[in-house]
Amino acid sequence: MRRNSVSPDFHTYPFVLKACGLLENTLLLAETIHSDLVKLGLLVDVFVCNTLACTYSRGGDVVSLEKVFEGSLFRDVVSYNVMIDGIVKAGEIDKAREVFDEMPERDAVSWGTLLAGYAKLNRCVEAIELFDHMVDLEVKFDNVALVSYLSACAHLGELEKGKMIHDHIRRDGIKLDLYLGTALVDLYAKCGCIEMAKEVFNSCRLKNVSLWNAMLAGLAMHGHGIPLLQYFSRMVENGIKPDGVTILALLVGCSHSGLINEARTIFSEMESVYRVPRELKHYGCMADLLGRAGLIKEAVEMIREMPMVGDVFVWGGLLGGCKIHGNLEVAEVAAKRVMEVKPEDGGVYSVLAHMYANSHRWDDLVKVRRLRDCRWGIKKSAGCSLIELDGIKHEFVSGDCLHVHTDEIYFVLHCLELHQYEAL
């Protein structure tokens, strides 16, 4: 066009910017076009402005995106949606919420984008609150919002809320696509409703690796080892190629079910048969599995043959097995490695101290406690459990005394302890 002395206008540049988004040097081209738009005074056009902002958003340049947004003379709902999407992708969800709250009007994309951001960043309480607000305002939600909400429910164990959405999907005849199907299977599986998870899984005509993984992970989580392997066989027979998540679910399931030989076979074949590269998480799972089974020597040999340096999960898995079977010699090596990788992890000091006490090595017990006390930032995560009764969720943290029924709870626990001692 330029060689033929034809000047581009506000109709031309949006197409050029969309083409830029398909190239590797997106941001460099976008900056060049941005300069042209400023010189030609074309940024007064809201469509041109939105397309430029969208290009920066796709390229991950939040600073330039904000400059375009703040400098635009006219903004519509698309302008805000692009801005929110870019900020959410950058992980700045609170800033995205500020922009969302400033919007003069919102559409389903606005709500869905923010909701997806909350769910992706595991801000699940905010995700559920936002969705409930959508329902109160009678905002029509799309599948993106439904998937994000179900994901948040699964993470928090909000089974009843998830069931309500499933009822809504069936009642309104919403097509159960791969994303919705996977979200529902994940919800039911994580909440222990394996039969419902199977029912949803079987109702999905199309199944991809994500849907299979959700089903496999649910079976693994609840120790259904044999059904897990049966579903995996079906997956392979249906021509679905497993990935790293698939193998991890299988190893976890085998560990929970004590299927040592099956785990060995899967771990051995994951690269040679399934072409899935081994990662630290797979080695960590195998170290935990072998350690629990008392196969400490085999676990140590596996770690030595690893092509990469072990992380806290690999050495921590071995340490856990050593604690169970009282192998203090290997435990000391594993604990030292964990301390090198993650010195602020208080759990490793507790495990080692406990093992020293059981072996009556009091001097070493004192040393490890002093080592723990002299290091800054040492922390041990408190145990936490949740239970829902009559629609009310109760959270219990180790050592907590803030619950309204604390006195009654500790009284019952004390009675249970007395019964236990009497039984002995």
TrEMBL record:
Keywords: Repeat. One of its GO terms (biological process) is RNA modification. PPR repeats lie at residues 76-110, 208-242. InterPro entries: E_motif, PPR_At4g14850-like_plant, PPR_rpt, TPR-like_helical_dom_sf. It comes from the Eukaryota. GO terms for molecular function: RNA binding. NCBIfam families: PPR. This is Pentatricopeptide repeat-containing protein.
